[in-house]
Every structure is written in structure tokens, then in C-alpha cells.
Design goal:
alpha/beta; single chain; DNA-binding; 6-stranded parallel sheet; NreC/VraR/RcsB-like_REC; globular; Sig_transdc_resp-reg_receiver; phosphoprotein
Length: about 220
């Protein structure tokens, strides 16, 4: 029985091989070592989860100012809307964590994690959860304002949305495709699109990836 379909993106071949051979409950359907090849394999394979290093070669063109991981997410996500991204990096710098989460990653764990921890994180992200190594979660909460009384502000923001818009918001933020939201809520895709547009407008967000970060920071997923 096959496991969760995963693409591994890391510029160290030995590390990729080690992950491929040791991850539990995972079917590795592709690998990549730089931004360009990662975007191509993700579009071709449509994996459930991408395990993604933050710093990669091939950061060119319109993504020159981005980290490699950030560039992969921004370029690959439109072609693989149901794919979820999990950063796995040696870096625990706040700037790296925040940038990749802002780009749309569902979580961030460090390479000091055990095989069991990485496998569990992949399963959690595939199920729609957000996952962070414990010491990194504070960076995300601080960056997105989910501390020091911002919980009340989140409630005020949610009050702008109708009950149905809140349902759609949570599903979209968890990574559901429009057709999956339509099936879950027994509504048409056109209605889903209308609700998503309203949610983004009312929350003053510009994309579903910003919505995911917004909802994750407020623990709404």
C-alpha cells in the first residue's frame, strides 16, 4: 500500500537519499536539487506534500530576492493547488521561518528532527495541520501578530465574515482545492470562488497563501 506522495527538494543528494530510505508511510515520487527542477517536478507529479529546504540554488528572475524555498512555493503552488509545503532546513533563523511561511508553507521543522518527527510532520501537513518545531512557533506567532491581545482582534476580524464564509475560509486555509470545498459544503465551485473573493476582500489579504498564514497565526486551522 502506497503512502503519502512526497517530493523532496534539497541540494544535497546524500540527504535526499537518506530521507527517501528512512521516512515512514511516505512514497517519494520525485526529487529536486534547485528551484527550476523543483518547480518542474512538483507540477508534473502533483504530490500531497513537498519537503523543502529553505536555501537552494537557482534563485533567478522575478524571484531573485527570495530564498530558494520561498521561490519554489510561489512558483509551484499555482500549478499544484492541492500540494502542501513543509520546510525542512538546517536554518532556525527567524527571517527564514517567517519568509517561507509568508510564501505559503504549512510548517517548518529543522534538520535536527528525528526521522519519526519528520514522518509525523509530513502526515500532519498532509492532513491539513500546521507544524512547527517547538522553538520556531514563537517566530510565526510574533510575525503574524497572534500574541499580546491579538486573539481578540482575530475575533473582530472573523465577525466580518458570514458563517458560510468562515467555513470556506477554514477549508481554503487548510489547503483544500476549490472543487474539494464545493464537495465538502455541497455548493458550486462558482459559489466557492465568490466566497473566497469576499473573504480575501474583507480580511484585506491578496491570496490564499496569505490566508493560510493569517489563519495559522491565529490558530484557526
Amino acid at each position: 500500500m502506497s503512502g503519502i506522495r512526497v517530493v523532496i527538494v534539497d541540494d544535497h543528494s546524500i540527504f535526499r537519499s537518506g530521507l527517501r530510505s528512512t521516512l515512514e508511510g511516505v512514497e517519494v515520487v520525485g526529487e529536486a536539487s534547485d528551484v527550476e527542477s523543483a518547480v518542474a517536478v512538483i507540477a508534473a507529479e502533483q504530490p500531497e506534500v513537498v519537503l523543502l529546504d529553505v536555501h537552494l540554488p537557482g534563485e533567478t528572475g522575478e524571484v531573485a530576492a527570495a530564498t530558494g524555498g520561498e521561490a519554489v512555493i510561489r512558483r509551484a503552488a499555482p500549478a499544484a493547488p492541492s500540494t502542501r509545503f513543509l520546510a525542512l532546513s538546517v536554518s532556525d533563523a527567524a527571517e527564514d521561518v517567517v519568509r517561507v511561511i509568508r510564501a505559503g508553507a504549512r510548517g517548518y521543522i529543522t534538520k535536527g528532527s528525528s526521522v519519526a518527527e519528520v514522518s509525523a510532520a509530513v502526515r500532519a501537513v498532509a492532513d491539513g495541520d500546521a507544524v512547527f518545531s517547538p522553538r520556531l512557533a514563537g517566530f510565526v506567532l510574533d510575525a503574524f501578530g497572534a500574541v499580546s491581545g491579538e486573539t481578540a482582534a482575530a475575533s473582530d476580524e472573523l465577525d466580518r465574515l458570514s458563517a458560510r464564509e468562515q467555513e470556506v475560509m477554514r477549508l481554503i486555509a487548510r489547503g483544500y482545492a476549490y472543487k474539494e470545498v464545493a464537495a465538502e459544503l455541497f455548493i458550486s465551485m462558482k459559489t466557492v470562488e465568490t466566497h473566497v473573493s469576499a473573504v480575501l476582500r474583507k480580511l484585506q489579504l491578496s491570496s490564499r497563501y496569505e490566508l493560510t498564514a493569517w489563519a495559522s497565526a491565529r490558530r484557526l486551522l
